[in-house]
Design brief:
By secondary structure, the chain is mainly α. It contains 17 helices and three strands.
Length: about 400
Amino acid sequence: MPDFQYIARELSGQQVQGVLTAGSEKEALATLSARQLFPLQVGLADSSKAQQRVVGRRVPPRYLAIFYSQLADLLKSGVPLLRSLELLSRQSTHSSLKAVIQDVRDQVADGSRLYDAMRRHPKAFSQLVISMIRAGEEGGFLEDVLKRIATFTEHQEELKGRVIGSMVYPIFLLVVGGLVISVLMVWFVPRFEPIFENMAQRGQLPWATTALLGMSNWAQRYWVIALIGGAAAVVGLQQWLQTPLGSRKLDEFRLKMIGMGRIVKSLAIARFCRVLGTLLQNGVPVLNSLRIAKDATANQVLSEAIDQAAENVSTGKSLAGPLGASGHFPEEIIEMIDVGEEANNLENVLIDISENLEKRTGREIEMAVRLLEPILLLCLAAVVLFVVIALLLPILNSSGAV
């Protein structure tokens, strides 16, 4: 718990100051009140402020993957955990990772378990990693778990890199297209309005030109309001998505998105199968493995379905049946899991499923991105064509009348 510095006044009126340990500032104030002290100033101690800065640090996954791999190698070579953490802290070139490892080392030196020390850094270590390390510590195969976490993290980063790389050009098209359309509507189109003023008064202006001029006038008058409203909507949406209901609705939407829903679900199932297979290979009981692996989906809907399957498995049922009944897992995957259970080879089957799903999903992502590029180009071309036609129609009509 953090330390709080305080300045308070006793009942006699004498001013005192000191340091106390409490879970929060509210708890610190209650403690001072119980001591019959009137608080004048209460705040985090310097050591706790520094500690909070360490706890709030983010570490890039690629550096974490190296850390997991090196820690596994040191432990497998017989180097004690404290000594291994101290070595990795000194060798680390990333400042945030260095501070996090040092804090973890200090907590372990004070008697904490490794997973408890890591739990203090939620922005560096995910709940899935903490759960797997806890299973490794309790099962006596921490080195193997760390190695598999390193492999899993590297694999996820490679997949993420491929997806981000594939989306660079479409995002570039969206940004450039938005800028082009904005310039056309705010700067280019208004220059033609005086030319079409007489035709508009006679009612001879084509509907496309009228609509274009109306949109241009609206953009010129209300662009500030639209910008503020859009920013407010984004902030409000972000806050709502942080609530339990909003987070769940977002996960439901991700699974139901046209075109992308299947890809999102396949990646989530692939992560689940890889983690579950890894845990089973290391001898973790199936129920504990399911409760740990469900976090790998990063989707509340799938996690709830897996949690329900775990409850059914605890009553003696097979894993394939409850997962199939949830309706979120494809039939071919359920069939493979069923065969793996019957052959007593479920862990290897799950790893194979994850690898096949990731390969297939990678191809689907590449295909979707390839289709997205011409679609965006066509949309941009259609907007520009509409602007050109709307501006030329009145001129062509006037020429035809002459």
